[in-house]
Design goal:
mainly alpha, three-stranded antiparallel β-sheet, 11 helices, 3 strands, 55% helix, 5% strand, elongated
Length: 296
């Protein structure tokens, strides 16, 4: 049989409908409480209609303890609670005892703060572990998850860290590996942006040629400039040049022109003499003698 009680006031009652037809309201606690005595006489209920005496005894109202156990399980989880002796003794010896007295039930509820204090360090360690596991596959989008896991780990006290290292010996490496992988991905992304920017400059130079249909005999300088810029790129940067085929086509079109305009070469200027004084020496004298001989 099941009972329904208000979590604040207790006082369980026994509805006259099957459990499948009862709709729980917020704040209600449903508990199953029966024995294997006789025909399965219900605890704290009038069983006289079944030809059995009422089994009331001195058992107390478990509503408050049931709520406490449910809330502890929701916050801390069964794994941590099973390893806490105070909680386990209450669960086994009081909650699961059909004839637990009200005094025993009240004493068990009063130990909630003790249980929570005992679980505090273990909970902090488990929370750090859960955040590390929540990182999952490392991508650039997992930055916040990695930082949250690192913050939780760094916040552990010495006692909590000892529990963490004992229960989860591999998780610190999981965290540090995730951090290293994130930094690697970050550097790759930064380099990729640099490569794309370099490639974009070459793309502009190729676009500046004007396309194959615009190639004339005077297109040589632009084509050669674009080719030189492309050849100066790294292999990774060249992958981002989306119009390289246009450059190749322009080069072929330019080479097919019979007499392309040559690239003008600016002549170099002669160096200026260091001074304007006449140069003396044997060479200068020989020139003057030769001139004089012709005059004769």
């Amino acid at each position: 049989m099941y009972s329904i009680a208000d979590r604040m006031t207790g006082n369980p009652s026994f509805p006259g409908v099957g459990a499948a037809d009862w709709r729980l309201s917020d704040g209600e606690v449903m508990r199953w409480q029966f024995t294997v005595w006789g025909y399965g006489a219900d605890l704290n209920a009038d069983n006289s209609a079944w030809g059995q005496p009422s089994i009331t005894g001195n058992s107390g109202d478990k509503t408050e303890l049931t709520v406490m156990i449910a809330e502890l399980r929701q916050v801390y989880g069964d794994k941590l609670l099973r390893n806490n002796k105070t909680y386990f003794d209450i669960y086994r010896d009081v909650l699961c005892n059909p004839l637990a007295t009200q005094e025993e039930l009240d004493a068990a509820v009063a130990k909630r703060s003790q249980i929570e204090e005992e679980l505090k360090d273990a909970y902090a360690a488990e929370n750090a572990k859960d955040l590390i596991e929540a990182i999952g596959t490392v991508t650039l989008e997992r930055k916040a998850a990695i930082e949250a896991a690192r913050a939780a780990y760094n916040a552990l006290t010495e006692e909590q860290l000892a529990i963490f290292n004992e229960l989860y010996p591999d998780h610190l490496k999981i965290l540090t590996d995730a951090e290293a992988r994130y930094e690697e991905l970050k550097k790759q992304a930064e380099q990729e942006e640099i490569d794309k920017a370099a490639a974009q400059e070459v793309i502009k130079l190729i676009d500046d040629i004007g396309g194959v249909e615009s190639v004339t005999g005077s297109s040589g300088p632009k084509i050669r400039k674009a080719r030189a810029a492309y050849d100066a790129l790294t292999d990774a940067q060249k992958k981002y040049v989306t119009n390289y085929d246009v450059l190749v086509a322009c080069e072929e079109a330019f080479d097919a022109i019979p007499n392309p305009v040559p690239t003008p070469v600016t002549p170099s200027k002669p160096s200026k003499p260091k001074d304007d004084k006449p140069t003396t020496g044997s060479s200068f004298t020989d020139v003057r003698l030769a001139a004089g001989m012709r005059m004769l």
